[in-house]
Amino acid sequence: MRARLTYFTLAAVLVVYFVLVGGRGVALIRQGTAVTVAFGLAVLALPAIGLWFLWHTTRFARSANRLARELEAEGGLPEDELRRTPSGRIDRDSADAVFTRRKAEAEAEPGDWRTWFRLAVAYHDARDTPRARKAMQRAIALHDGRAPREG
Question: Which regions span the lipid bilayer (predicted)?
Fold first, then answer.
């Protein structure tokens, strides 16, 4: 719940920032000179890119949460079997062992979104965020009946 609140708070702050920056871009365009119009258009590109990124990130998080709820209802969420350091951090060797198992499961059943979801969790626990995101994108695509992107 705390992570969700933090996400929506930061997203709201970003939207306010985008509105403020967009207002500056419009003000520059209204000046009417070639230089200010060019700068205004450039300034407007920043919130447009930011909104696009925020939209895709939000859509990804909602899809991943939808899969997590479905997997939880099936009783298929991966159990937390990881050892922790005294400070509470995940033990790297423990995460690597679970990752090896999850990767073998995904390779054995490459068309099952559930194995890719669990692999994404294992990548995340092993602190490999880019691969965790790609595995989760694959799980989402398989779940939704779309061909997953290769690469």
Answer: 7-29, 35-55
